[in-house]
Amino acid sequence: MQSTITSKFQTTIPKQIREGLNLSVKDRLEWKIVNGKIIVVPALETKFLNYKNRIKTGPGSISNDIQNARDLRIEKFR
Known about the structure:
Blueprint: H1 15-20, E1 29-34, E2 37-42, H2 62-76
Antiparallel strand pairs: 1-2
């Protein structure tokens, strides 16, 4: 099977391959070069890992966090 690289360096995955690997929109692929050949495989990552490094945290106080959550809940019903 063949596909063409566009001017934006994009390519279409042939239907047989998409269906054979059960690929869908937003799936991630891993690209490798092995012995001068391009190898493309579905990336092995869970949806949970998509959020890695997106939330910045720092030192905190659990008691303050609990109190803030309680205060927010009270405000919700006022």
